[in-house]
Every structure is written in C-alpha cells, then in structure tokens.
Amino acid sequence: MPASDYQLVTRWTLAAPIAAVWEELTHTERWPEWWRGVRRVELLERGDESGVGALRRMTWRSALPYELTFDMRTTRIEPQSVIEGVADGELRGRGIWSLAAEPGRTQVRYDWLVEATKPWMRVLAPVAKPLFAWNHGVVMEWGRSGLARRLERAQAQLNR
User: Fold this and answer.
1) For labeling, which of 13, 44, 53, 160 is most exposed (least CB within 10 Å)?
2) What one-character-per-residue DSSP string does 116-153 give?
C-alpha cells in the first residue's frame, strides 16, 4: 500500500434508535449543523429516489491547519443498514457507513479507504501518515459527539 493510501475504520456507539441515526446520516446537507469538521456540503446531483447516484461536494476542516474538498457520489444504499460512496478530488477512494441496531442503541462503523491526492500530502505521507490518521480520528470524534448531542436533544424534545 502506497504511503498516501489510508484504510481507516471508525466505530461509534450511539444511544439512539437506528431510525434516528439513519435520518441524520442520510441528510448529508445538514451535517455542518452538528459536525464541527464539516464546513460545507453542496448537493450537485440528486440521484434516484433512494439517493443512489447523488453527488455532493464536501469541504472538511481538521484539527490540523488544512481543509480538504472532494466530491462524494452515493453508490449504494441499503435502508437503515449501509451507505456507500466514492470520493474524488483532494481525497480519492471509498467510504462505507454500516449501521446495526442493538437494544437502546445503534452501532455505527465507517470504513474510509482513500488516497490523498494533494501533492503536499503525498510528499509528506511517508512520515506524516500517523499524524494524518490521528487527525482523521479527531474529526470523526467531532462527528460522534456532535451527532450524540443532536440525537439527545431530539429525544428530549420528544419526551416533553
């Protein structure tokens, strides 16, 4: 595997029903409302009625002083189970969200199989790869904590 290639796996446990988690993950344009690392999500193409084929331009900020922009095309959706997409731009590769319901909670796994395409990232990858992987972990934790707060607030409103 070249130094600029990454196989990153993130796992979240969320104290919410799978339907609520699915609702938030499938409305990508709302991610900037709760995910600190997401600057912008722009829908470029809608895709079919299930969302397959949708194309979004995403701009992410990180714990390190840089941003990345790439396009993500949704290639597979299995309701309340899997969302898969292909990235192209400053990152190129594939991302897969997998959800599983458990009593009182949802298990979420994200597999991010990408290569960095920015020249400076490719040059630094042999020595900075652990730092880039750490940075990915921080950004994903921002997502987990932001989504957990959003889901807790929604549940509290329902319980009023």
Assistant:
1) 160
2) E-SHHHHHHHHHHHHHHHHHHHHHHHHHHHHHHHHHHH
> What's the CA gap between 140 and 73, in Å, rounded?
20
Reported confidence tier of residue 3, pLDDT bands at 50, 70, 90 = low
- Class for domain 5-158, per CATH? alpha beta
Residues 59 and 74 sit within 8 Å (Cβ to Cβ): no
Eight-state DSSP code of residue 133: H
pLDDT of 11 > 90? The answer is yes
Max CA pair span of the chain: 54
Question: Which three-class secondary structure state does DSSP give residue 149?
Answer: helix
The partner residues of 53 in beta bridges, in order of sequence, read none
Length of the chain as a residue count: 160
Question: Residue 56: which H helix or E strand, with range?
Answer: strand 55-61
Tell me the average pLDDT across 16-31. Answer: 97
Give the contacts of 142 (CB within 8 A, at least 6 positions apart). Answer: 35, 36, 37
